[in-house]
Design brief:
The chain is an all-alpha fold and 173 residues long. It has helices at 2-36, 44-47, 55-74, 95-98, 104-113, 116-125, 130-148, 153-156, 164-172. It starts with a helix and ends with a helix.
Length: 173
C-alpha cells in the first residue's frame, strides 16, 4: 500500500510541478524578451546578477548554456526551429522558443543567475520575495528529480525549513 501511495504522490507532484514550470518559463521569457528583445537572453552580461558572479563565471555559464541549447535544438522536430525568422545568425532560437528547451534544473540555474530586479519582478508574480521564490524553485527541482527517477519520496525525504513553524500554522488552519 505504501508503494502505491508513494507512486501516486510522485505522479501528482510531477503534474503540479509541470504546471509551475510552464508558468515560470512563460514569465521568465516574457520578462527577458520584453526587456532585452528576442535574442538578448543569449547575452548573459545584460541580465546576470553582476555582484554575485565574476565576469569569468558569467562567460563560462553562458558558454555551457549555449552548448546545451544547441544540443537540445538538434533533438527537436518542430519546424519552428528551422524557420530563419526564429533564429539569429548563429542559429540560436528566440527566447520564446529557447526557454521551452530548458530542463527544470536549467531553469532554476537561470533564475539563480538573474539580477535582483528581474528576479524580484518574477517573484512578485507569485506573491513572494526573490529569496523565498528561488528557495522554492530549488526545492521543487529536488523533489522533481526524486519523482522523475522513482525515488522513495515518502520514506527517504525529510524537509528542514527555517519556516517550519509558519508551515505548521498554515497547515493546521
Amino acid at each position: 500500500m505504501r508503494y502505491y501511495q508513494d507512486k501516486n504522490l510522485r505522479l501528482h507532484l510531477l503534474h503540479a510541478i509541470e504546471k509551475i514550470e510552464v508558468s515560470v518559463k512563460t514569465e521568465l521569457s516574457h520578462k527577458l524578451g520584453l526587456k532585452y528583445g528576442p535574442f538578448g537572453y543569449l547575452l548573459f552580461y545584460q541580465w546576470v546578477h553582476r555582484e554575485k558572479y565574476s565576469s569569468f563565471e558569467v562567460e563560462e555559464k553562458q558558454y555551457k548554456f549555449k552548448v546545451s541549447l544547441l544540443k537540445s535544438m538538434k533533438r527537436q522536430n518542430s519546424p519552428e526551429f528551422s524557420r530563419k525568422e526564429n533564429l539569429n545568425k548563429d542559429g540560436f532560437p528566440t527566447i520564446w522558443l529557447g526557454i521551452d528547451l530548458l530542463t527544470f534544473g536549467e531553469l532554476v540555474i537561470i533564475l539563480d543567475l538573474l539580477n535582483s530586479s528581474l528576479l524580484s519582478d518574477i517573484a512578485a508574480k507569485y506573491n513572494t520575495t526573490s529569496e523565498e521564490f528561488l528557495s522554492w524553485m530549488k526545492c521543487l527541482s529536488f523533489i522533481r528529480n526524486i519523482c522523475a527517477h522513482n525515488g522513495n519520496l515518502i520514506m527517504d525525504v525529510i524537509f528542514i525549513s527555517k519556516n517550519i513553524e509558519r508551515w505548521k500554522t498554515n497547515i493546521s488552519n
